[in-house]
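Model the whole thing, not chain by chain.
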Amino acid sequence: MKTKIFKVKSKTENLSLIRDFIKTATAEAGVTSDAVENIILAVDEACTNIIKHAYKSFPDGELIIKTKSTLSRFVISIIDYGNSFEPDTIPEPDLQKYYRQKRVGGLGMYLMKTLMDDVKYVSIPGKYNEVMLSKNIEAAHSNAG
Amino acid sequence: MAEFNTSIKEQGAVSIINLKGYLDAHTAPILENNFVDLIDKNRFQIVVDFKDLAYISSAGLGVFMAYIEKIRESNGDIKLAGMNNKVYNIFDLLGFPLLYEIFNSESEAVQKFTEKK
């Protein structure tokens, strides 16, 4: 099992560094390119939500991003120490409603759930929040070896 | 570091915003400012050309939702053009093709505005 870790401050300008980190981690794990793009977007959405909602755009919060890969699964865990979060209160997005209300929300979470095979949240109020994103991957490297 | 930028050109009454690079929560305000400027100038016929856009997240998609109603109330529209498959798939997942006209090329989108008259 390969693991990697990346710690970064809660600023949107760091989203590109986060995407680069995930790109490298997925490449090292031999994840195929379609899945890589989906994983990168899902992690971007998760981190954007943490920066905007858990840390309310406060730039000195910490995000700890860990990746783990096995032959069949690529898992990303993102920990933050911001406000806790109740994922069940976020409704499925309804674009027609957004159009009428001129507001957008929940698109990121919907994308995460659609692009990944499993999304789990753990929130210990006053301590930490963790989101775990999992993607089943093909063992592409088994052909090579 | 120019990870995202836009350029605007005008073709008669139609304004064309060309997007280049990576559109995420950090860079979305650049595009928001473009829409605010065009609305201030009463330019409501807008084509957004995605052909040089490599990446979009939901923060970028949200920009289109934020201004579309105001623009349509002013008899304008935002038409989208030139998306690569990866970017189109994200729009499609979120149901945007029901709300926006999406064209293969910028010229087709511009033509749609001009032929209406």
